Amino acid sequence: MSQPQFHTEQNHRDQHPVPATVSAEQFQLLSSNILREINTVMDGKAEAARLALTVLLAEGHLLLEDVPGVGKTMLAKTLARTIDCSVSRIQFTPDLLPSDVTGVSIFNQASQQFEFRPGAVFANIVIGDEINRASAKTQSALLECMEEHQVTVDGQSYSLGEPFMVIATQNPIEMEGTYPLPEAQRDRFMARISMGYPDAAAELEMLETHQSVSPLNEVRPVATGNDIAAMIRTVHSIYVSPAVKEYIVALGQSTREHPQIRLGASPRALLQLLRAAKATAALAKRDFVLPDDVSAIAGAVLSHRIILDRKAVGAGETPGGILTAILAKLPVPQQSSPRG
């Protein structure tokens, strides 16, 4: 049996007290510094970088899906390096075991007791590379971790640190040697990004700057784990009007009632859409959510959860296309600010 293929870049945890929130100025300074560091590495991927930060601040998990070689793992590693916190990377393979991810109890002959050895999931940011190359059993080991921020081994539960985020990459399911993620696993990811190819200018810039030294080596932490935790608490305080909440519920119900959709947005999906919209508003320097924040992030949050019926798939429809059509017909509330 092969050895677990993961490594931990930093094993300690920050034990300093976490501030309740940060000021609006400090929030913008930290977020702009993180995005600047990411954009020095990821040429032409500013939108993907911003969405990755949005998911982090919304306490979600991110799924990066595209063909090999377009920068999925690079984006995950760059985001992790901008933050001074514990980071683990797991290379998913067909023979990876669930205990390699979560940890295992080992009998200590000296103490005559079982001792728990934490797995790679015990970190603030966990990078799961090519998650759909592992078996369904190993993929499912992440379910409890992602939803409840804890691991249960031999009847004993162990809490994970805060903040906690899983950034997983996967190749399209048509690629050789891949296993599709089950619906329950996909639903745990707040958002999915399809990286796409860079434009010609960005690709030319990459050839000029990346040919000798990887720019990832120059990335330095610009925020601590405590900073991120405080920013997350700031996002919690963003105001959401009843009208915007009704807009989100109406969007979810529209996906469930659409004739071409077999599986619509779950209640968990709507809750995560709300959290992502609050983070979007905070990054836009607002303390309240607009309907535009919801519609801007809806595609990334909902598309990977929606399953179309066979006729829609045969007609060439996509979840993103149908979601865009639903948003175009959905009435937009006019009052959404605290002063509205």
TrEMBL record:
Q: Which CDD domains match?
A: AAA
Q: Does the keyword Ribosomal protein apply?
A: no
EC class (word): hydrolase
Extract the GO molecular function terms from the UniProt entry: ATP binding; ATP hydrolysis activity
Keywords in UniProt for this one?
Hydrolase
In what residue span(s) does the ChlI/MoxR AAA lid domain sit?
Answer: 254-321
* Keyword Hydrolase appears in the UniProt entry: yes
Instruction: Give the E.C. number(s).
Output: 3.6.3.-
Q: What Gene3D superfamilies would the database entry show?
A: Magnesium chelatase subunit I, C-Terminal domain (1.10.8.80), P-loop containing nucleotide triphosphate hydrolases (3.40.50.300)
Name of protein: MoxR-like ATPase
Q: Where is the ATPase AAA-3 domain?
A: 61-190
Q: State the source organism's domain of life.
A: Bacteria
**Family matches, as SUPFAM superfamilies:** P-loop containing nucleoside triphosphate hydrolases (SSF52540)
Q: Species name for this entry?
A: Psychromicrobium silvestre
